[in-house]
Specification:
With about 150 residues, the protein is mostly helical. The protein has 2 domains: about 90 residues, no CATH class; about 50 residues, no CATH class. The protein contains 7 helices and 2 strands. About 5% of the residues are buried.
Length: about 150
């Protein structure tokens, strides 16, 4: 089954609707799972690929929410006229703050390579963790990664 955007006006050939398989749609976000930052990044890529108008993006957003997330959405009293503002509110409510990141159980400073984890997967995970902490020096990150590699 495919999801497609509404048919564009005949004169809007540059903004042709894209047909995207359902499997590419983001999971429904329940407030905790999947990870809010990862979910939001995927949702933004999905919207960009679908080439939806801002009005359609605002209409699509609650369709991908459930449980605590849809409760949050339904109880917001602000007028939703901008995706930028809606996503900012979402981020402030669901995504961790800088202090939360420092206090996380797994950070770039505590993560070690798992016994069966491939080196490239470990590097990717560490780079992702490093993005969460602004200003991490590249040389420091390299040292941490090398120190935490399995022998």
């Amino acid at each position: 089954m495919y999801i497609s955007a509404p048919d564009p006006p005949a004169s809007a050939s540059a903004a042709a609707a894209r047909v995207i398989p359902d499997i590419c749609a983001p999971q429904v976000f329940g407030g905790v799972h999947p990870d809010p930052e990862t979910w939001l990044a995927h949702f933004k890529r999905y919207l960009a690929c679908r080439q939806l108008s801002e009005e359609d993006q605002l209409a699509f957003f609650p369709l991908f929410l459930k449980k605590a997330a849809i409760d949050w959405y339904d109880t917001q009293t602000t007028q939703r006229t901008s995706m930028e503002e809606l996503l900012k509110e979402f981020t402030q409510f669901f995504c961790p703050t800088d202090l939360n990141r420092v206090m996380d159980r797994e950070t770039v400073f505590t993560r070690v390579q798992e016994r069966t984890e491939k080196v490239r997967d470990y590097f990717s995970a560490m780079q992702k963790l490093a993005k969460r902490i602004p200003g991490v020096d590249e040389d420091l990150l390299k040292g941490i990664i090398i120190r935490c590699l399995q022998p």
